[in-house]
Amino acid sequence: MGLPIPNSKLGMWLFLGTEIMFFTAFIGTYIVLYFGSPGWPTDTHVTHISIIAGGVNTFVLIFSSYMVVVAHEAMALRNFDKAYKALLVTFACAFVFLGIKSYEYYGKFSHNILPGQIAENDEQAIDKVVQESEAASDEWLNDLVPGDGSPERIHIKQLAARNVAGAESELTQVTQQLKDMDGASSERQAELQQREAMWQAIVDNKAQIENWVALDAAVTKLRDDVSANRLTMEQTDERLTTLQADERFASHMAAVHHPHPILYGNLFASMYFLMTGFHAVHVVVGMILFAIVLSKGARLSEEWTDWVENSGLYWHFVDLVWIFLFPLIYIIPGFDRGTPGH
Amino acid sequence: MKRFWCTFFVFWPIMAVILCWVAPAQNWWFPRGASGTGAAMSPLGERIDDLFYMILIITAVTFVGTQIGLGYVLFTGARRSDAPHGAEDAEKTWFTHGSHNLEVMWSVVPAAVLLFIALYQMEVWAEFRVKDSFPDEVRTGPIAEVTARQFEWRIRYPGLDANGNPLELMPDPQPTDLYTVNELHVTSAEPVMIWLRSEDVQHSFFLPELRVKQDAVPGLVIPVWFEATKSTDYSWLCAELCGWGHYKMKGRFVAEPEEDLREWMQELQNEQMDDGVPDDVGDSQVAD
Amino acid sequence: MSIATPTAEASHDGEHHAHVEDKLALLKKIHTFSTDHKVIGVQFLITTMLMLLVGGALALGVRWQLAFPWESMPFFGSLFAQQGGQISPEFYTMLFTMHATVMIFLVIIPILAGAFGNFLIPLMIGADDMAFPLLNALSYWFMWPAIACFGASFFFGGGPAAGWTSYPVLSAVQEAAPGSGMAQTMWLLAVTFVGVSSMMGSVNYMTTIINMRAPGMTLFRMPLTIWAMFITAILQAFALPVLTAAGFMLLFERTLGFTFFVPGGLVINNADPTTGGGQPLLWQHLFWFYSHPAVYIMILPAMGMVSDMLACMSRKPIFGYKPMVYSMAAIAGLGFIVWGHHMFISGMNPALGMTFMVSTMMIALPSAVKVFNWIGTMWGGRLQFNTVLLNAVAFVSMFIVGGLSGIFMAAVPVDIYIHDTYFIVAHFHYVLFGATLFGVFGAIHFWFPKMFGRTMSETVGKWHFFLTFIGFNGTFFPMHLLGVAGMPRRYADPYLHPYLEHLLPMNQFMTICAILMGFAQLLLLGNFLISIFVGKECSDNPWHANGLEWSAPSPPPHGNFPSVPVVYRGPYEYSDPAQPEGLDYWPQTEPPPAPA
Amino acid sequence: MAYQETAEGHHEHHHVNYWLIFIALCICTAISVVFDVVQLDRRLIAVLVLAVAVAKAQFVMRYFMHLKFEGAWKYVLLLPTAILACGLPLALAPDIGLHYYRTDVPQYRTAMREGIIPNEGGAPLEPEAGHADDHNHAGGDEGSHQE
Ligand code: HEA
Ligand code: HEA
Ligand code: CUA
Ligand SMILES: [Cu+2]
Question: Which of A44, A208, A298, A314 sits 20 to 30 Å CA-CA off A333?
């Protein structure tokens, strides 16, 4: 006894019921956190939410959903060739969807809108500029003077680089010491060799090192001014712009982000990546389901009808989730863009 | 053997009832601490206890009733089991699929009882938690801010003005504030309120003798009020798992007459304001 | 003890005795990736029984510390040696966390749904297997990554340190419990794995029960066990995804820098202030949204099985079959709207607390209906005093205690005082061990003959019951008193507080009882394992029961029934005077007498 | 199983013009994007946009997922799910969406400083200068967060 539908379809529907609850947890959380966090970022310039991208993706998913029903209908009418083509289009749509999604993600990554990395107020934003500038400066130095990049080592390199004028004499000194040394501990020898390599690199890259020294001075000043509370965010931003405009170190400072505090930005980014991420995972699973059918190629036959129907149901569900994510993430928060808060 | 098992099942509820009966005398009941009797040491606590006893009576009656029922069916069932299937009428299995009237009865009666309990208690709950039902005395403001952290309590009092009267407690630390660690002094004259907050993980502010408990939630400032009826020391501990030291997170909770409290605060103020660096002392007292 | 005592003579109902079954058929496949629901059931059963020992051993560690604080623990201490076998506070936290985790996720839930659900559902509804046998096998094998992760969490760092409820911030920020490191992460992963396992199971059970019933097996002819399994599966299907979702969130928060539960500005263990924007209460809501329905997941199947056992052993129909079904449905429905009663004291909105209080009170109602109907079932029956009945009666008796203590906690003002004290610990051990586990013990004895064609030893079974019952009540009843005395739970050393000092002897008594109860479980395991080989052989229907499963051979072959069974009546027609042959049972498959 | 004969007959053809449904969905999407551009009360827009989403979901479920042609079981399955799905956010709202107790976290202070929410707690709005890190205070001040 039972319902007049096959087990596989019943099972799929029940599974979709559980999936609804799974996404309910995310979406419900998002809604209540949105209301519980006064000042949730809604300005799309700040959040880098692109309604166009979301809208196109909505369209792509709807179209793929349509293609799935076409495929299913064709299967039922035993037009396997048509079904195959329709599924191929669906698969391609899924690909496009993921492509656009990655483009959006890329935007978030390049603006560092990532959970746990976002400054939420001016102080944090200023601080982040300092930290990133220091990191950029360290990285540059580490490139110029190869070898161990541990903080202690970097510190030694910094001291040496600041003494670029005396580098040649230091180098001769170390070389001499190395020569004079015989029978001493190999540890000491290794240490001296390391220093020799360091000074050698400094001498070789003298011009560059001098540029670095200039940057180092600027960054140090920036840090000192910040910790003495002498800089506002705008001033910090200006300083950074100046540094980035300076052709001597422009390429190295390019990666430093301008101060860009987003109130509740970490929460926002977490929710964004959580919801769209799990949705994307579902898209990938759907693609696998379709890939299995597609791999049958010309051998696609009647026995796959249920499979196509059930993966179709799953795919429609993936579409459904997006139908709700689109207004919730892309449209509603974006209403009053430009004005702070809500 | 059947008789043995029947007795066995009747024996244990009897033991349970006896155990509960003797428990208060054995000091296995509400903590005797300050009262010596185990009675709650706050008016609200007394009402909680009353509620507890009321539920205890209801559940005890239910418990005894159901266990008697169980015992009865066991004994009669044991007797009947000797009889063969289809025996004389008296020993026959009662072939029935249930009784509508009985079902209605034993749904409606418990429903009424449960609904009664549910409605009856609301007032106490509201008084303890709903801000609008707080007693008037505590609406004027908190007397201290208690901040929980792993694994201690930090207390911030408002300082005293020139006349020795407490200032108002501001939401943020003031230079005049007074600090203690693990020691909370309150007046026993009237209900008082504190602000409860946590600096790291979740903790819980638990005064067993006063029947007060409230979790300290990171990010929230929760008002908790209580009234100690006797001037003495009470136990104060943490009731929410907060890490390895959870069990040892205890404090000294002192309720004392108004004058003693003033005196103590004055002393505290003198102590803290006396080392020459007026603006910083409060902080250095509680530095890590 | 007349009819319902298992006997070797099988002549009376020797339907299927043409073929001699290999009694070890199920056991022989236990290590294989079998898709046969009976093999999977037995796999689950044996795995969970072993896990019971593990979880119990951890509990004994807890009890040791409570009875002999800071004294070296024999055996165990040296296993996880810290300072000469002494239990450190971190270790204590890990002990009760893992105790609860193992008991709940690796014992109770899988033994009810996994072992008995799997074994019984197709047999009782007359199907040849589950709807999705492969998925079924996967749901068993997904237990193993979970077990591996739980196992790993013992050794990666000091073990998870946030209790089984895993409240953030403690569980979310590494600095808050420095020792827990990878262990807490592993724990979360493991919970996700058991979640996946249960998920696969529940979709499978629902589909099977809805779609694969034998002809004549209408919904209201299904045994209460099946109803219970069905409702449990529904609960799982709709509650579990929320926990899985929350688990992912906590996992990401812990490892990837996401933020959902940790607010900003917390200074934890002198580390940099946190920068998140989350809210700790969110986790509690999501967690209990699953974990309250989960406590009914942990008892409904036992309720169903106990109903079957009681009817059979009383030789009487279930009293009020439909009310029993409706009350289970009501428990499930209400079970979704009471989760807040775990958060009364947590700083939730007091008005919300009141709502949850009322719904919690109301959930006692269907439970009451069930209790009275069980008593009604036994009333006027011919009780067969065997191990099955004893355990089933213990279930009812203990459930009443556990349920009634729930009423105290449901009353919010009282919960202010008893929340997070041993009163709670007493409550849930009464329902979880006292009710569910006794039900499971009964079920093991009841359906063992179907699994292996032999019966378990009655004598050992009764000793096991006797010792467990005494040990259980000796351990857990006094916990009510400890709770009233204000002893908080999760305390490594309550005696640090003067007002609790005098409770030490009581705790020692409880520990002795716990050890007794622990060793009694070895009797069960021994009885189970040995009876598989040397138990008394029995007929296919040793209890003279009505259910469809008893019309299949023992153990049922692959495909279960020689031919498709046809169902003519409900499963509880015991002692029906209309039974044509004058028997006191009337199997569901027996065609009604032709009208004269 | 052998006697699960009921499975047949589900391949029968229902005449649905899927292309029309697809067009309808596209129009709905366009409408929601338009809402984003026009200036209306934002609460109204939120309701409208969600209504459009529900309408879209209706189309997808009824036609693409064939629910229109299924038996009564669809209600048994979907109604409880829908109730739970709506109930969960509703039940979370009083605690997470609103706040009964005063919230004191750095974000709130920033929000107060920027006038997004009224400064109810009376907390000072300007970040304190210098090093205040020995304030044992959760949301005590922003300055110390940079240490
Ligand atoms: C199988 C598991 C199970 C079951 C069935 C129950 C059943 C119930 N539980 Fe329990 N509960 C747990 C497992 C379970 N619980 C666990 C594990 C915890 C702790 C989790 C943790 O914090 O770690 C917990 C915690 C817990 C709390 C939180 C306490 C706290 O932390 O402060 C509360 C509060 O309301 C509660 C209430 C109830 C109620 C009202 C029932 C009801 O369903 C009981 C209904 C039954 C009866 C009432 C008995 C029979 C009825 C009659 C005989 C009729 C007449 C009765 C009357 C008129 C009163 N439980
Ligand atoms: C189904 C669930 C279940 C079961 C069966 C049990 C069984 C037991 N529990 Fe359980 N317990 C919980 C679920 C359960 N518990 C939960 C959810 C918590 C809350 C945790 C938290 O706060 O987070 C808890 C907490 C808890 C505490 C409170 C800890 C604290 O708050 O500080 C205590 C204290 O006594 C305790 C004791 C016991 C005992 C003695 C048993 C006994 O019944 C066990 C009997 C013993 C055995 C069955 C094992 C036999 C084994 C051997 C004889 C050794 C063999 C050796 C090897 C194989 C190596 N438990
Ligand atoms: Cu603080 Cu427990
Ligand atoms: Cu609960």
Answer: A314
